[in-house]
Amino acid sequence: MDSYNFKVIARIKSDFPEKFGIPRQSGLVPSLRSVIHFEPEFRNPDALRGLEGFSHLWLIWIFSENVRDTWHPTVRPPRLGGNTRLGVFATRSSFRPNPIAMSCVKIEEVRLDGPEGPEIIVSGADLMDGTPIIDIKPYLPYADSVEGAKGGFAEARRYDCLQVEIAPEIARLVPEGKLDALVEILRQDPRPHYQDDPERIYGLSFAGKNFKFKVTGDTLTVIAVE
């Protein structure tokens, strides 16, 4: 079997130190801000020449927390409650023959003279802090947007967003500039879809804090910040 080696060209700096709570797809939480930091070999401003003319990027990255030596032809998508098996190539599961992912993100700013060389500030990313990126490509609207495309089981299983309640005394503990993103993340319901215990307390690590919350019906309530 042929194999290929890839270089890590960059890593992302995000507010997610762990996988729980990360949006299930890119673009679902537009208020999220992340920074792409390039590895020393690729800190050349010329490599970003012309990027300012694009609004979005494709990030090709590694499921670095899910690297395995084996693979299975079927997986259990969380979107279907974790009880239905589908072919791995019919899903975006992180457990794949090659742990490669892609995300479409919006370019907020291209900095050619950052403290550690060129960097790209993006919004809407669904990557954990430190995730290795192996390629960056511009999003091309004329080719990458397909009119009438079908979304399969993912399109058929859309979920309504939750109502999020955060008391003022708790909201004041959220790091500056992060409240909108936090609310958007929680509205997406970070719980596994097979969990629906109104008494269970969940913890979401985000922006240097741990937010404790409960869900009753369609209302999510943040009850503490650590």
Describe what you observe in this structure.
With about 230 residues, the chain is mostly beta strands. It has helices at about 140-145, 150-155, 170, 180-185, and strands at about 10-15, 35-40, 55-60, 75, 85, 100-110, 120-125, 130-140, 165, 200-205, 210-215, 220-225. The strands form three sheets. The protein has a six-stranded antiparallel β-barrel. The longest helix is centred in the last third of the chain and has 9 residues, at about 180-185. The radius of gyration is 19 Å and the shape is globular. The model has no long low-confidence stretch (mean pLDDT about 95).
List the helices and strands and how they pair.
Layout (H helix, E strand, L loop, with lengths): L9 E4 L19 E6 L17 E7 L11 E2 L10 E2 L12 E12 L7 E5 L8 E7 L2 H4 L7 H5 L6 E4 L1 H4 L7 H9 L14 E5 L2 E8 L2 E7 L1
Parallel strand pairs: 9-12
Antiparallel strand pairs: 1-2, 1-8, 2-7, 3-6, 3-8, 4-5, 6-7, 10-11, 11-12
